[in-house]
Amino acid sequence: MAVALDLRRLPKWVQPRTDAAAQPPRPDAARLPANRQLANQPNAPHPYAARQPDLHALRRQLDDGDVTEAQLVFCAQLAHGDLDEALRRHVRRCPQRLDTVVAALQAGTRQHAIAELLLDLWDDGVCRDRLADDEHAAARLFAGQGADTFRQLQRELATCAQAARRGRCLLALGCARDVDVSPSLLAQLEAPRHEEALLAAFALSCLPGTWLADVAQRAPTSFLLRAALLRSEADELAHFAAHCGEPAELRQRLRGASLPVFCELASWLRHGADASE
User: Fold this and answer.
1) 137-158 pLDDT, tens digit each
2) Which of 182, 194, 231, 236 is deepest in the core (most CB within 10 A)?
């Protein structure tokens, strides 16, 4: 039978103190800088300072290839710049672990620089002939990613000047499901680079039909937009396909076409439109 401990019967030197002197002084919160201001001060401790030994160890393990699946997932979810670089080096040496990193980024734990890391991994894969600049690589990396990732992609597209990275941003936006990116892609149909406009049209064709139904009802005349709507397999766009006036054979070939076939047929649509004017 448990006996209650009577603190009053303990010697004074072991009794808990309840007077004000025993309590640590509380800082005045109003006088403390905000966390962001503190983090930006030159002498402020880094937010990860308390975990630096672990981070150093994880970087060494990534570089040595001695990490478990759980550690790899943990590293991908941390959103730490040095670890991201180590992750890239690790995946370059162990390409079979790319899918583990991608799955970790889908979990929603990480909120920052997701798109940046995925685009960097894509670039590394292309440089080593492990990934291509096509819809399959885009789906492998970005399908199932959260809304934050696609918002980051839109910001990257708005600021990036590198043609290859911009093209990957466009293809990746076609994988969005949780946030409507169609306005960004529609704007890119007027891009000065025809290659980027083609990629934007292809990405549009991959989006949910509900995001494009209003556009289809306005009887678009842009050959790229028409090609995108014809490629889509969404039920919401079936009425447009049936009444667009394009030959049945062309509609059949465009529906669900691969990226190279889409670009070829879109070019045909362009010349056909020019010839009819």
Assistant:
1) 999 999 999 999 999 999 999 9
2) 231
